[in-house]
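Incident log, structure service

09:12 report received: a user says their structure output differs between two submissions of the same chain.
09:20 pulled the input from the user's history:
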Amino acid sequence: MKQGKLFQVLLGLATALLLTAGTVSAQNKSVRIAYVEWDCAAASTHLVQAVLQEKMGYEVEILPVAAAAMWQAVGTGNVDGMVTAWLPVTHADYYERVKGNVEDLGPIVGGARLGWVIPSYVTIDSIAEVNEHADKFNRRIIGIDPGAGLMRLSEEAVQDYRLDRMNLIEGSDATMTAALSNAIDRNEWIVVTGWSPHWKFGVWDLKYLDDPKGILGGEERIHTVVRNGLEEDMPEVYNFLNNFHWKDPNQLQMVMAWNQEPGSDRYENAKRFIAENEEQVKSWLE
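09:34 re-ran on a clean worker, output below:
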């Protein structure tokens, strides 16, 4: 199935799931948060869920969906918000479509970045060099989920850098990191779509390929975006989401690393963070 058609099917299924789950109720203690199944998004979203439930007494439903469906759900008010909006570039198109129906509460962390990532032992430095070494890379760029902003930008990079010997492979965060792990175990060349903060940079010696055309963008920030009307309907929830932020990318990356430990549970790790950072959490609730 072609990427465009597959993306439309995934978007339709995810949107149907959100719509059939019902609209947000302002009369009860129920909150709905959408997120994309990326490790950084999962870490932030589970922490928000844990604070709302453990500290504030809310019942929180978290919904993993495609990026486009996540933005659409916030824009239509079918969820209360998200804490994984990559701006100003990666999710710019999504934001443009719904900006009249959502409120951007600002960044939860800065210093984020998108790009193509290789093991440090791979002896090239730029995306412009990839095509001439296509065979060493098995003619593949290992990507993530279709419809992700990073995949859209990577498609542009393939065209603009004339990488006619390379194929951009759809997958997920999990399949991308699994492929990376297998290649490194065998000391093979591999190029993957990547971003930081991400736990993989704490596990392996990796580097970004230079992007002289600037197609994949510069520094990004991860924002909280909520539906219009949340401040009036749930002022306590709005206040918390407005205050919520990580101290720095390393703090987020630490929780992501916890989530990769064998047998780990994202929600329990969120509770661990709350217990170990009481003053920071308290500042979110003021």
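09:41 both user submissions now match this output. Likely a transient worker issue. Closing.
09:42 reviewer note: The chain has a mean pLDDT of 91. Strands lie at 30-35, 59-64, 81-87, 102-119, 140-142, 167-169, 192-196, 206-208, 220-227.
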